[in-house]
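Illustration: Saccharopine dehydrogenase.
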Amino acid sequence: MSLRVVVIGATGVFGSRIARRLAHDARFELILAARRAESLEALYASIGDARLQVATLDAGHANFPHALAALRPQLVIHAAGPFQGQDYRVAEACMACGSHYIDLADGRGFVSGFEQLDAQAWRAGCLLVSGASSVPALSAAVVDALLPRFASLEAIEHAINPGNRTPRGDATVASILGYCGRPIRVWRNGGWDEAHGWMDSRRQHFPFGRRRVGVCDVPDLELFPARYRQVRTVLFRAGLELPLLQWATWSLAVLVRLGVIRDLARHAPALRRLSERFVAFGSDVGGMAVELRGEDREGAPLHLRWWLDADAGDGPQVPVTPAIVLARRMADGLVDAKGAMPCMGLLTLEQIIEGFDGFALRTGLETVSR
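Result:
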């Protein structure tokens, strides 16, 4: 029997990719949900799967729990960000109608606080998973895979830098702008310290070259010090391919820190449109790097760098792949977990990388120093 799946935010940058990858798969009875009927109809027509269903759905409407229950979902995939500032109404509505739940959240508070729903999820017999995306699902899977090589782990520093031609929606831009220039609590040298969004930058090595990245606020900064208790430093950075846009964003972060700009995120649509004037420049090549430093089993220094290279505009496939892989494994009866949790330990690195098949995504591992 097919798993009945509702994709919320199906017409967005990430939701549409989830929809296309789950369509034409007999394991799923797929319902595409979004706020605008015309966008849904256009997506439906472009996918060309007659089995698809569409439904207009607004998670902010008072009638949302009843509207969702009427669709009779067995699994809901929530891709309607940004998740910074959202509450848990979608997950709670899922429990009320007995549905499992997966989201692509990268909001630190949203994902790190998600376990508060654990007792309710157990009573409802549901699995609720938050952060089934590049962070923390993929990043944690990388650390879990490399950790056995270390006797002691000193630092985890990871970064993402998309190609300039990579599609970006208002929600993604708003999530970045929301912490630019804002104080961010980071675990550094064995204690909590403070950095500022998009600042504390450095040039990060990727397979395609070096790009500048600055500190960003993601769930890993809260979750990793608790998950990997020996680690003394956890930092995450992100950046933009074009130096002009990177430094422009840094300048806006400075203005926020100085109090000149109070709410940068509300300018996301205008700034996203402005950035698209430069889309002809740069490339569609982006990537991710996860670096671990510590000591190996012989007590010698060890520095490993896992990398991901995304070409041909396939970068946005990376953040949706953990949710897709998890949904497929649920449809195949391979997941029996219950409760509410961040997406850490549910998927192995090998399983996620297998989900990259068919896309211009390469991964590798190198020893930076011993």
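Reading the tokens back as a structure: The longest helix spans residues 243-257.
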